[in-house]
Specification:
The chain has 507 residues and is of the alpha/beta class.
Length: 507
Amino acid sequence: MNGKREYGDYQTPEYFSLAVCDYLKNKKKIEPTIIIEPTCGIGSFIKSSLIFNASRIVGIEINPKYCEICKNNNPDPKVHIRNADFFTFDFKTIIKDNDQFLIVGNPPWVNNSTLSSLNSDNVPAKINFKGYKGMDAMTGSSNFDICEYIILQLIASFHGTNTTIAMLCKTSVARNIFVEMKRTYTTFSSCAILEFDAKKVFGIHASACLFVLDLSANDVSNDICNVYSFDEPNKIKSSFGYINGRFYSNISKNEVDFSGKCCFEWRQGVKHDCAKVMELSFDGKSLLNGHKEHVAIENRYVFPLIKSSMFKKPILSDSKKYVIVTQKKIREDTSHIAIDAPKTWNYLNSKKEYFSNRKSSIYKNAPDFSMFGIGNYSYEKYKVGVSGFYKKPLFSVLASFDGTPIMTDDTSYFICFPTYDTAYVAMLILNSTRVQQFLSTIAFMDAKRPYTKKVLDRIDFNKILQSIQMTDLVNTEKALELEAYITENMLHEFRSLPELSQDTRIS
């Protein structure tokens, strides 16, 4: 038992559960006949739900100790507490055609990878419930939030009934649910996000909200979700959703639209999950690994490394960090390193236990010391990269003085170019005011990783080049405090790249 961490256990203070129920009753005018709290804990929402004139209140809780506390705190005869596992509970036993349901509560704020690392049994059967394919199904895309899974399962169980779902969750979870409903053509009457201060309520740093979803309509599916403050529920702060089939994070700021398909392939950096062995630093005399051990190996498989946190300058040409790159493509045999670089091979073998402890399934049945996020593109000499983490993205040219390819880590993204000059132009374009403004409309700043491959893939250089002027690039160069370098010929060279369509090649 790992306590709060295992169960995502943040019990809702009674004052706040009462405020939520008061909002639902008096502002939303919800009049449920049956109230369900699918993960009721010690029962603050159960107790607060008594303000409604419901005929029955059902609480479901996996923890037997919490069940007893909840029963003792709520002796009202219309309250029914069931010691059961949400993931196996059959809601068909509750649903009746004429009832109006209110499903309210605070599901666990934890993801399945955290539960797995804790060897928890409080986790659903390992299914790919969003239908990811290929590598996405094996890696981070399938690392779903348990809270998100619970709400989606409730939507599936109660879809087509007269039901309102009102759940406390991370704001990112609420957005993901909205996107998933649109992806699966799940109809609903309305949805809204009411943001609140999670530090004040739960003592944690997270972007959190009350997510309110009305499932009552069978033939409606709104394209827009409005965002409010819980303290000002009548004033729209922002809106996100779909315009002409494309998703925007902030519709009110959608003044410049460069959305489309990027003609350059955004790549993710190398993934090895063995940083203390594979990532090295230079102390002026020799290489050191993460254990502060001196590492004497050949240079053949050692490359400069720009980590996500190092994207702080528009030109990155050197690094104090290095990474051992064992492959040129995924699942390539690595045994040849023993001949090509025996010191490197001996070093890797001396640390084999660290590689064996890597838990990701992507390394299963792979050659020794395998990596991912690797291909011919990794060895290109000229790249433009960006950190996935920074709220304001700074795109940087990656080009070493000696022409050695610069690698990035797997929280960074990059595109490749044939020359330094074309990479330089791309960097200025991506850092220009209007492109930055556009990016702010398709990325969520409160997300752990605002910029992902999915977001970056929407940057349509063809559209940008139809409106961008040389003066825009000059002004960007000045804003970045770079020496004057950009020329009309460089812009013409960029426009002439084969990835770009013919209509943008007119200077």
